C-alpha cells in the first residue's frame, strides 16, 4: 500500500480549530493516507477580512517551507475558504497545494449545475465572489449567503451557529434554484453530513473536497508545475523580519 502524507494547514492561529479541521480531514482520508495538521506561529485567530488574509498568507507560506524542510509531505491543503497565499504556496513546492474554496467549487459542479455558498459573515462574501471570478465558477454560483456569525462562534456557540447555518441553507434551497450548497468556512468542516440531512441537498465542504483532490493528484503522479509562473521564486535579499528568507535555496527536498 502506498503511504501518502497530506499536511492540512489552518491559516489562522486558533489551535482548537486546527484540531477540528484535522479531525474532519482524518475522517475522510483513505487507507494509507496520513493526515497531519499545522498552523502559523503568529497571525489572526480567525480570518474575516482582506487584512486578515494578507497576514495569514505569510503564515501559510511559512508552514509550507517548514513542511518542505521536514520532507515526506506529498500534498498540502490550505484550510481557509479565502485560499490565502495559495499561489505563493504552490511556488514553494512541487507537491500539489489545494485550496478548500477552489476544491469545493470544482466538486459542487460535478453534482449540480448551480450552487449557492453559505458562509459566516456577509463582509467575506466579496472574497468568495472574487474567487469565483478568478477560478471561473461565477456562472455556476447563484448566490453567496451569510449566516452572519463570527468564525469563532462555530466553536464558542456551536448549537446557535449550526441553527443559523441550516436556516440559511434552507433559504438557499428554497429561493436560489440550486442543486447543491458549498459551505464557505473551513470551521464548518465537521458539520457537512448533519447540514445535508437537514437540508436534503448535497453539501460540499472544502476541507474534505481538498483532501480527496490531493489524494487523487498524488495517486496520478501529478505535481505542481515548475514551468512558468509557479516556478520556484528567484533567490534575493529580504530585509527586516523577513531577512531569514534571503537567498532561500529552493527546492528544499
Automatic annotation (TrEMBL):
Q: Which InterPro entries match?
A: Asp/Glu/hydantoin_racemase, Hydantoin_racemase-like, Iso_Racemase_Enz_sf
Q: Which Pfam families match?
A: Asp_Glu_race
Q: Which domain of life is it from?
A: Bacteria
Q: Which family does it belong to?
A: Belongs to the HyuE racemase family.
Q: Which PANTHER family match?
A: PROTEIN DCG1 (PTHR28047:SF5)
Instruction: Quote the protein name from its UniProt record.
Output: Aspartate/glutamate racemase family protein
Naturally occurring in which organism (per UniProt): Vreelandella neptunia
Amino acid at each position: 500500500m502506498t503511504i501518502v502524507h497530506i499536511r492540512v494547514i489552518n491559516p489562522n492561529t486558533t489551535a482548537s480549530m486546527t484540531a477540528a479541521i484535522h479531525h474532519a480531514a482524518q475522517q475522510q482520508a483513505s487507507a494509507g493516507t496520513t493526515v497531519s495538521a499545522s498552523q502559523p506561529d503568529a497571525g489572526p485567530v480567525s480570518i474575516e477580512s482582506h487584512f486578515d488574509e494578507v497576514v495569514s498568507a505569510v503564515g501559510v507560506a511559512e508552514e509550507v517551507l517548514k513542511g518542505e524542510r521536514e520532507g515526506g509531505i506529498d500534498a498540502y491543503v490550505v484550510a481557509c475558504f479565502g485560499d490565502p497565499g495559495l499561489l505563493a504556496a504552490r511556488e514553494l513546492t512541487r507537491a500539489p497545494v489545494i485550496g478548500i474554496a477552489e476544491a469545493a467549487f470544482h466538486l459542487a459542479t460535478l453534482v449540480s449545475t448551480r450552487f449557492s455558498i453559505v458562509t459566516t459573515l456577509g463582509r467575506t462574501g466579496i472574497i468568495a465572489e472574487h474567487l469565483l471570478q478568478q477560478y471561473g465558477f461565477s456562472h455556476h454560483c447563484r448566490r453567496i449567503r451569510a449566516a452572519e456569525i463570527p468564525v469563532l462562534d462555530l466553536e464558542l456557540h456551536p448549537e446557535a451557529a449550526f441553527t443559523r447555518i441550516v436556516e440559511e441553507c434552507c433559504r438557499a434551497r428554497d429561493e436560489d434554484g440550486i442543486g447543491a450548497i458549498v459551505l464557505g468556512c473551513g470551521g464548518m468542516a465537521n458539520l457537512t453530513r448533519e447540514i445535508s440531512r437537514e437540508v436534503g441537498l448535497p453539501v460540499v465542504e472544502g476541507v474534505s473536497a481538498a483532501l480527496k483532490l490531493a489524494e487523487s493528484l498524488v495517486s496520478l503522479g501529478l505535481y505542481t508545475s515548475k514551468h512558468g509562473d509557479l516556478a520556484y521564486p528567484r533567490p534575493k535579499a529580504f530585509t527586516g523580519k523577513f531577512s531569514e528568507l534571503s537567498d532561500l535555496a529552493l527546492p528544499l527536498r
